[in-house]
Amino acid sequence: MTGAASQDLVDAVRLRLVESGAEPTPARVAAALRAQGRLLGDSTVLGVVEALRSELVGTGPLEPLLADPQVTDVLVTGPEEVWVDRGRGVERTEVRFPDAAAVRRLAQRLATAAGRRLDDARPWADARLPDGTRMHAVLPPVAVDSPCLSLRVGRTRAFRLSELIAAGTVPPGGDRLLRAVLAARLSYVISGGTGTGKTTLLSTLLGLVGRGERIVLAEDSAELRPDHPHVVRLEARPANQEGAGLVELRDLVRQALRMRPDRLVVGEVRGAEVTDLLAALNTGHEGGCGTVHANAAADVPARLEALGMTAGLDRAALHSQLAAALSLVVHLVRDRSGQRRIAEIHVLERDRDGMVHTVPAAFWDADGFTRERGWPRLRLLCERGGGAL
Fold first, then answer.
1. Tens of pLDDT along 344-366?
2. In the chain, where are the structural domains located?
């Protein structure tokens, strides 16, 4: 049987099973084939069963890729364009879909499982799947050639600091500096581009927080999984099709403040919630942290300034709050080889005009962090809080 004929057969059986609402068991597939006047061998029936299960259960043909512990991202840009990232940049795989319609069906099924709408009227979706995988999908005509599907694997546990050192994310000896920052209860943000490992590093650092402390997480999509016994996780929610039920990240930050957090964490600062976070960190909530997209550590004040303006906070007020709220920026990069690492750590200072800028305190080096002109201030901050360097 040719590939086209085989796909026609699968399509015909799928339609009949969808109409009846039946699961694609071998017996039901055989019955559907007989109803069409087709008598085929056991191997053909089992092949149709496998093809249908691949479409109707889990993530279909992408399942083996997501099960690979080294895979962090699975990217589908077309039926014959399936890529993965194993920490060394994107690699093309041998996985194939029958056609663009099969990619569309998988994307829509995953979106439905996450409670999102994905169709011609709403041609994109961003959601977290029940297993923690982050999904993003775009349908034509917004995606020009084919439906595009991006899956970011949600790991069930956080990495240990020793594992990040072994992987090269933290330089040798860098764990002492990070532990001192946490012990001193300094407030910080982890910056970097998409896929640089911000969430991974933050989860690891939160796992080092004292066991007697209470961590409250506020996230757009629940991705942080710190290895800690006392974690409260809050997740934002989009509006339903009637436009009701919206829960924004800044709503979660406000609720978190009423939950007696020892450490208030915003998974990703991307909008007006920056004002609530800075206000919280200025009212005695030490050790707060979060992540933010930025090209470099030096760009973080300007990035937060832009976000604050979306909430109506003027520049002077934002910088005044920022100066008292945050102590340092940990910046991550991903080099051309795909290696994720802490490139630099900056402390924050306020100039004569009242504007906040960053000062380099430590730079990446293969043998350990190299000390820069902001190191004395970083050491002083840590020692004041009881974190010895």
1. 999 999 988 889 999 999 999 99
2. 3-56, 61-152, 161-384
Q: Tokens in use for 148?
A: 């595009």
pLDDT of residue 291: 94
Burial of 245: CB neighbours in 10 Å, binned 0-12, 13-18, 19+? exposed
Architecture of domain 161-384: 3-Layer(aba) Sandwich (3.40)
Range in 81-95, 134-148, 357-371 the model is least confident about: 81-95
Predicted TM-score of the model (pTM): 0.79
> 3-state DSSP call for residue 296?
coil
Mean pLDDT, range 196-221, rounded to an integer: 93
Name 21's bridge partners. Answer: none
CA 379/CA 81 separation, integer angstroms:
49
Quickly count: other Cβ atoms within 10 Å of residue 316's Cβ.
Answer: 11
Residue 305 makes CB contacts below 8 A (sequence gap 6+) with: 315, 318, 319
Percent of the chain with pLDDT over 70: 84
Is beta strand 215-219 parallel, antiparallel or unpaired with respect to 263-266?
Answer: parallel
- Rounded distance, CA 227 to CA 375, Å? 29
Dihedral-angle region of residue 330 (phi above 0 means left; psi in -120 to 50 means alpha; beta otherwise): beta
- Does 3.30.450.370 match the CATH number of domain 61-152? yes
Under a CB-based contact definition with an 8 Å cutoff, are residues 350 and 153 in contact? Answer: no
Q: What is the pLDDT, as a whole number, of residue 244? A: 81
Q: How far apart are CA 209 and CA 224, in angstroms?
A: 14
